[in-house]
Design the sequence.
DNA sequence: CCTTGAGCCTGTATCAACTACAGACCGTAG
DNA sequence: CTACGGTCTGTAGTTGATACAGGCTCAAGG
């Protein structure tokens, strides 16, 4: 009988299965993003597929720029599935607006910066358009 | 005789003149971004126009997303003006590339996020496209 | 049986860039 | 005189990890 899918995983296995840093897993446990896993008689952490799934969820969310606070919220909604969709939509839309605001900020910065750099002669002189812009702003 | 321009400023005056947080000024002093200002007989910090100028430079640079490390570098070039332009150009161009990379990242995130949110029905159901995307990714 | 190496455990320190607070002192106006 | 607002220092907290120290355990190879 094939029970690979319920095989107990060590921490290093979980790290390999997800690509997550070993220490980061423990960090997520201490801050409550990941549950404290069951322990073996000797006190070793013992993981299984649900941990792999949850950690992947967390990593994908982090990859999309959700904060750990936001992820905590999303996980709560996953765990307690009632009225989920509308609430998730709110979290995601708020985050989307944050991301769009950041893009707008960075785009402004990019414009100012590239305009300024373009005025740079790049020679060995002590006069520099970038410095002037920063000094006179 | 009008000597407003050389009037000694207290820390709170410097904060008001620049819009910088009071505590941030001290922080910049401890990390060497701002010089330790002269003290009065009673040990109070005493600032003048050069501090205002320098702090404004720092704040404009921060606003453009330069790290304190990068700003330290720029300030060094301002203080010791020899071969400035070419070196400043290098710092600014590297930073510009960082900014562009961040914009690219965030744009990818924005696309994924808005596509996912668009599939959201937003109703009171426990099924949610966002959660599914994060779970199955 | 013993050693070796890999893995486990905990706790603590470090990073950026601030922010905030505690506890004490000072200086001036009413 | 006392209240208020300012100053000083030192230290802790924030976010999201990452790294290391010091010690324990386990499985495989000789």
Sequence:
């Amino acid at each position: 009988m094939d029970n690979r899918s319920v095989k107990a995983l060590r921490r290093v296995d979980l790290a390999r299965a997800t690509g997550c840093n070993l220490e980061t897993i423990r960090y997520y446990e201490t801050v409550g993003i990941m549950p404290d896993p069951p322990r073996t008689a000797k006190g070793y952490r013992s993981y299984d597929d649900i941990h792999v799934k949850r950690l992947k969820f967390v990593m994908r969310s982090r990859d999309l720029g959700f904060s750990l606070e936001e992820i905590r919220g999303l996980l709560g909604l996953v765990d307690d599935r009632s009225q989920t969709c509308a609430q998730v939509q709110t979290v995601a839309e708020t985050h989307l607006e944050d991301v769009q605001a950041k893009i707008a900020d960075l785009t402004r910065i990019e414009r100012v910066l590239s305009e300024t750099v373009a005025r740079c002669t790049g020679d060995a002189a002590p006069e520099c358009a970038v410095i002037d812009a920063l000094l006179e702003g």
Observations:
- Chain B has two domains: 1-66, 95-137.
- Helices of chain B lie at 11-18, 22-30, 49-63, 68-79, 84-118, 129-136.
- Chain B touches chain A through 51 residues (CB under 8 Å).
